[in-house]
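Assemble and predict.
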Amino acid sequence: MNQVRHLIEPEDFTLEELMHLVDTGLTIFDNPAKYRKVCDGKIMASLFFEPSTRTKLSFDSAMMRLGGQVLGFSDANTSSTAKGESLADTIKVVNDYSDLIVMRHPKEGAPKLATHFATIPVINGGDGGHQHPTQTLTDLITIKRFKGRLDNMKIGFCGDLKFGRTVHSLIRTLARFGNKEFYLISPDELTLPVSLKRQLEKQGVKLIEVRYLEDVVEELDMLYMTRIQKERFFNEEDYVRLKNTYILNRDKIRTAKEDLIILHPLPRVNEIAIDVDTDPRAAYFEQSKMGVYVRMALICKLLEVGPYARG
Amino acid sequence: MNQVRHLIEPEDFTLEELMHLVDTGLTIFDNPAKYRKVCDGKIMASLFFEPSTRTKLSFDSAMMRLGGQVLGFSDANTSSTAKGESLADTIKVVNDYSDLIVMRHPKEGAPKLATHFATIPVINGGDGGHQHPTQTLTDLITIKRFKGRLDNMKIGFCGDLKFGRTVHSLIRTLARFGNKEFYLISPDELTLPVSLKRQLEKQGVKLIEVRYLEDVVEELDMLYMTRIQKERFFNEEDYVRLKNTYILNRDKIRTAKEDLIILHPLPRVNEIAIDVDTDPRAAYFEQSKMGVYVRMALICKLLEVGPYARG
Amino acid sequence: MNQVRHLIEPEDFTLEELMHLVDTGLTIFDNPAKYRKVCDGKIMASLFFEPSTRTKLSFDSAMMRLGGQVLGFSDANTSSTAKGESLADTIKVVNDYSDLIVMRHPKEGAPKLATHFATIPVINGGDGGHQHPTQTLTDLITIKRFKGRLDNMKIGFCGDLKFGRTVHSLIRTLARFGNKEFYLISPDELTLPVSLKRQLEKQGVKLIEVRYLEDVVEELDMLYMTRIQKERFFNEEDYVRLKNTYILNRDKIRTAKEDLIILHPLPRVNEIAIDVDTDPRAAYFEQSKMGVYVRMALICKLLEVGPYARG
């Protein structure tokens, strides 16, 4: 056997590999019936050391739609961890119960650590505020499906750009794909971290920071919304004032392009008004759906089955 | 595709449809091996916003015996709801992860609401004190199996007739099937709600209300027992006194017909004495078993597979 | 149909049956692909009235690798038990949802009780401090794989020999296989219970009790480690002093045989130092892996499928 591959962060894959994954996901989306047995007899261990229904169900659905089975836990309280077992031991044991591990963990770096003890592929399903690479894949496949390309776009990120790991990961990845201009729309308290800005600017990326969506909305090909969490603010008044500024509604996209797409990693609380849902530019539920297909492609790649079967 | 069907309350189906479901369930019961692949490749999302092992496992078993797979959660604490997501959003997302949704929710009307956002079938697995239509289907298939018919019976309901949603739903449905006489056996505190009585009497149904089972037991073709819950009473003494009056034991069915059947939706606590279990008239465990088969029929109907496949 | 078999304690099977199970497990291990459909269409109910991820996942993996499906719960809080249902009723109901029950319960004797109400096979997945027969099977298959035999060995048990149910069960079973000499290495506070010692000595077994592993390590063919739990001690100082004495490390096995195997039921906390893991004599992760294969053999035996299919 060749060396086992893992997905801990998007940088683990080359641009070509990412592009191929996205295209494979779209191929599966076009004809899912063709792939419904490719994981027959395979087991995915789904280890959620912290709950995340959305991510868990998306992976479960992906594996089941490929004909595989799923075991695991959705909460560390019912796991051996509660008895004081080390992560290394848990991984070594589960490694022999399954063919692939998906792992979500509250601690940064835990999935990376897991790869040292696993002889089967490990997928990072989110590690604290650090990485969530399958969210990035989900974003990419949605963009590709609706825009037909991954580069040469005017892209706006709106809301909490300081703490949102999905934003950091997606900006970095879109920059790798050659996008040269990003609109960063956030309150002063929640701007993109300086270190990331430096890194992007070194790569020749132009960052346009603004406070209000209305100032730039008509420029955008894609708008990525995020949630502003109360606990990020020092005081209640700032939160209430800013929260409303960053709620997207029909009025705020009145002047936007017709082929704009609006993404959001979900779950949403109230950062996008319900009336936007029926706007043809709203793509966040389609985005969630596409997440299943790109995860199907990823599972196939790591298990080397179906479209990724070896000659 | 035709319009998607849901099951939120028994009235969603015509009498003919209910009868056909019951008969299909009996057909599957007679030859389950014939149906063990009809849901191959299908996924059921089992969304239990409040725990109910019995209902969940019955549905899981039904889907698995048809060759389908199951994903979901058994407790809202591990779901995105905990992050403040609306039910509408949860349903829209899960809609793309699965082919069929089974949903239990503490709030009345939640499954009905879900049908507004789903493009796949939704089954109400119980919504608060409101509806639990697959329990009614379970009751019907059991009656049909043991009595050979769904009409023309003398039927007694015993215990808490005020709060028991399974009782309300079953009485209404049996009245639709043309049953004209019901014996209502309960303490004064727990009689059938007046509005339901009015409704039934308008349909020409005769309701005979008594306090003691012994007064009518020899008349009955079927006896439906329910649990009397302590929290329904104002004071402990009333509860203790009445509880014992409404515990079914061998002595109380001494004079009953030989072909009486005794049903109970389960779980039971102590409202039926253990010594009744071995009486040939006790049908409540068979009832629980039949629940799997009628759910198999229901899943087939809503997914239009197997016996309900379209020409 | 013949009488249904259960596994509640190792004594439920004859020596020949145990040996055959172990050998069947090894056969499946050598060629798992051959068995990956033998439980197609079968359902295992996995009823964990107390959490135990390791045991649950091992059984789930075994059933899935045979092509079967799994339903159940991993925590009694989400079960009907929380509504006051008796174990008897739960078993009678689940009996109709599945083809095989695996059950873990905090109360001794609960799985035995379950066999009175089940018409399908019941496997004890651990009942309090009492029995855990599939751990014993796991130990046996590991010994057979690495030593090629189950008898005629010098075997040491180290750590908590007083409360460790896996130790009691394994010693009794290895004595049945004709092993005549055991080294018992423990602090005075945690020696093997007198009643078990008497029983073994009556069978002609020689027990050599020592306090320090170093005194006997070079004699051993197999060393079985267990965890020393803090709550077993009257005072903190005794615990701290003894804990360190019974931590296995590289230094303590310096003089041991080259073909010694070291077992541990896992999870481990710190009773085996990490540096032992890479020693070729450490077999505890292989042991955990072998547990899946012997459980596959057991499931096949109880369901009478695959290698145990009838005529």
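Residues 10-131+291-308 of chain C form a domain with the Rossmann fold fold (CATH 3.40.50.1370).
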